[in-house]
PhnB protein
Amino acid sequence: MHIQPYLFFEGRCKEALDFYQRALGAEVTMLLRNKESPEPPACPLPPGAEEKILHSSFRIGNSTVYASDGLCQGQPNFQGFSLSLSAPNETEAARLFNTLAEGGQVQMPLGKTFFSPCFGMVTDRFGVAWMIVVVESAG
């Protein structure tokens, strides 16, 4: 059994995919636009939504994330969760954190904690909350 997050960007999915490719090295593994659907939409979509993304998947490291434009209502609403991203070292953690922070908002600057030599929280430009952590090896 697997749990994969499914993010609804409400019209900004392609922009988000492009950003995550640049920021995190994400690899888009599947992309289906509304106009390519074999069935008519279950819910009415606004005019021009034919080019918007019905379903996509992308990989970051060994993890798969699903994403869509949803109902294309303009403003994504991500609340009550964060995506946790493990970095191999502090240099990479800082790179990931700073890139995700571009156009976003730092919630907790990167710093040492009791559980990590480097941990921070940031909300990206799309409203997705991230926790960047360097996991110390039990060495």
